[in-house]
Amino acid sequence: MLSYLSFLSTQTWTLLLLFLGLLLVYGYWPYGIFKKLGVSGPKPVLFFGNMLNYKKGPHNFDMECFQKYGKMWG
Q: Rounded CA gap, 70 and 40, in Å?
């Protein structure tokens, strides 16, 4: 069953999984600060945050968030 995965050793697979897990933690970690502080805002995307929402234009996105979340949002 796992014979097609045997071209890499067990140690290599362990290190690869550990690396991917740490990469995910690193990608999510910065986006939890506002939630811990109780600041509401749009949910960020892994590694990109809210940058993808700015394709509508920074002013439009900021106005939408201001209307939805009030004066303070993050």
A: 9
* Domain ranges within the chain, ordered by starting residue: 32-74
- By 3-state DSSP, what share of the chain in percent is helix, strand and coil, each rounded to 5? 65, 5, 30
Q: What is the pTM of this model?
A: 0.62
Instruction: Count how many Cα atoms sit within 13 Å of the Cα of residue 71 in the half-sphere of its side chain.
Output: 0
Mean pLDDT, consecutive 10-residue stretches, the chain (74 aa), reads 70 92 86 85 84 88 91 84
Say which residue the tokens 């945050």 belong to: 49
Q: Which of 44, 48, 46, 47 is nearest to 65 (CA)?
A: 44
